[in-house]
Amino acid sequence: MAPSAPNDKNSSNALSFIEFILIVAALMALNALAIDTMLPALPQMGEALNVIHENDRQLIITAYLIGMAAASLLFGPLSDAVGRRKLLIIGLLIYSLGGILSIFATDYEHMLAARVLQGIGAASPRVLTISMVRDWYSGRDMGRVMSLAMMIFMAVPIIAPSIGQLILLMAPWRAIFIVLTSFGVLLLIWLQFRLPESLPPEKRNKFNLKTIYYAYKKVIVTPISFGYMLAISLIMGALFGFINSIQQIMVDIFDMGKAFPIIFAGIAVTMSLAAYLNATLVRKIGMRKLAHGALLMFTLCALINSFLAYSGHQTIVTFVILQALTMFFFGFVGSNCNAMAMDPIGDIAGTASSLIVFFTTLVGALIGAAIGASFNDTTIPLTLGSAVLGSLAVIVVYFTEGQRLFTPKHDDD
What we know:
Blueprint: H1 17-36, H2 42-48, H3 59-82, H4 84-103, H5 108-136, H6 139-153, H7 155-170, H8 174-194, H9 209-221, H10 223-253, H11 260-285, H12 287-311, H13 316-342, H14 349-373, H15 380-400
Helix pairs in contact: 1-5, 1-6, 1-7, 1-8, 3-5, 3-14, 4-5, 4-8, 7-11, 9-14, 10-13, 10-14, 10-15, 11-12, 11-13, 12-13, 12-15
């Protein structure tokens, strides 16, 4: 165990277990806040920054995701060489700088550049938080830490748009970036004074480009890892398409502007419920049965939703119910497919995780941007896009598992 680890009674400066959980949850929440809080403000931001086409304002979200994806390739391998704490602090410094530049951005191009920089900084906690937990805990203890942190983290996407809406009621849209930057700075100060290093020098590896190349290559040539990484990317595209489109769908189609944060919360809470149920069911049912069944149901719900959109029978009620169900099943797909992608490559987990985060975030962000850019005052681009992506993911998983579902290609789940 690393020095001054949580609950290390031999160290007077050790974190309490509760404080460590709060730090992990706060680091995990950083990205959800930076994306979901600004959703209600996109129309005001677009007007202030002279964004001509309404769909283009969605790129304020996509720019952040692209920055995070690109930097993910670096932070994982680098942390194995220099440690986690230093890079977490550097990442938060970059995130806060991007936030400050966002506050003072006077045009669309500068805002996009600032958001890319903010995303680059956010890649550090996105990649390193789980590595830090893994340094100190394993097995059931690690599961307990992550479960407790997730209970806090899962509340963030539910309340983030409401936070953004509340800020808009009291201040201009730039105040949202003031709040986001302040959160990053406070978290930076907290880590600076309280977080010990989790990876001692004797356990670090040299930063070797050749080793990193072979680790990345192993992920790509390992069929199970690459297959599930591709499937996750497709489903992430549906998620980011939803995030990019939902504000315009609620306001422009269903005229639910004031109720948007509440409706978004209702849909997001289903993902939280799925994550909670998954932790309970996965040991009884198995990852493959849960993931494959949820993937089929995800696709079915999206198909029904797109059929209603095409036939003209869709209402706010049917859309919200079916979209909530789609996101509910997404909650089972993401975590289990990610675990199965990592399973064959546990010996290079840190570096492999960087590549998987990079690939799934970048591909998902680009697909999501395409769905958002296709918004045409109907829900068809989102619902049909989700149905197509779900169907493609099913096909990818089917062939990844040797033309079967629910049972593994080789070993038992």
